[in-house]
Amino acid sequence: MNNSFSSSSPDGQFNQEKVFLDFVKRIGKQTEGRTAVHVHLSRLRPYHQRDHHLRIAQNACEELISRFSGTLFRLYNNDIVLFTTNATVAQIDETILRLRYLFSDDPMLAGDYNLDSDQFCSWYDIDRQYADVIALAIQKNEELETHLRREKAEAIATLSGKPPEKPTIPLMPSHLAVVTKAIDQADLSSLMKRQAIYLVNEGQKPEALFKELFFSIDQLQKTILPTHNLLSNRWLFQDLTRYLDKRMLVILRQNDDSTLSRSYSLNLNVATSLSDEFLKLDQALGDSARRSIVIEFQLLDVFADVGSFTFARDFLKERGYKICLDGITHLSLPMIDRRKMGFDLVKLQWNQDLTKFLSTARGEEIRTTVKNVDPNRMILCHCGAEEAIATGRDLGIKLMQGFYIDQFVRGWKRTTSEESQNLANAMGRHRAEADHTPE
Fold first, then answer.
1. Source organism's superkingdom (predicted)?
2. Exposed site from 146, 385, 398, 403, fewest CB < 10 Å?
3. pTM for the full model?
């Protein structure tokens, strides 16, 4: 048995990738009867990847390893790869079920157990899938090298006081398989961000109506492929968003956060809104929750397949969702007929060009277009400066989103009545707690 699983030494642990690859190469002519199981512990929540969890997981595998000439490798990301000889699927599955029970309260394992579509384990019949096992070992070595390069760059940057260089390698089609697999394996829950859409009335504190949920692309890039620029190719990135969509849907379906049960928007690909993952989320939602959720589609995605969009739009509206068209600029806005296209909302991107355009002779065209679309059905997004609020008021748009609006809300001074009410509420809570304090 390879017993460096519980090693706390970085060098000892990191060497496992190389030993793993050497081992797979060595058994190339002795594949008969061998089975490998890749246990994706890295997909568990961080609180289930502590040292004592990993040690218990190792102990759970010891009997299987001793009975069937097994070997175990712990990879740098805490995954386990377990090899056995002449063990049946049922015999191996006894150990896997013990591992599943150990982590049974993790959201990833909340669903029914299905050996063919299990997110917890990947199985390999080495006699038939030796090439896949070699590919896995090579991939894990490459991931480790990338991880070490990133850590070295960050260490150097910390010592020099300079931020690490931004990735410069453009994303290529040949990288997609690696990136999508990394997306599938990474814990993306910590990368999920929320940004509110506010109703902004002059002289009043902006009111948050719902929040958009999305993954931080900057953090995602640092996590899965720090040497490459995921945004360098717009079409390849659009393809990657399909994988991100599905991970978002899984997180929403498995989450236990009550604030994620309603009043949010999701920017999805049209195809994702018709996928099994979305249907599973839809079945978990009540009618009132669906009516509070907005599904956003990008303009390019809509026109890429109008037939699929029409089908998705009708399905979603019948289920009670609201539909929003995203990705609109002041240049594309005149081409949009919101009512004919069946959208409840349209997101118009703010930038300095829009503000400047309104001051030109053609500015009135935009104002007329906004009136035709209906300013009450529009959201001015990407509001990154004070001018955005003035531009929204100029166009009659009261729904706004962006980091400047977030700062604007955080800096809003409460009125005396608000402060008094908050004080009264706090005193009421204090009295209630005092009344229930045991003698």
1. Bacteria
2. 403
3. 0.58
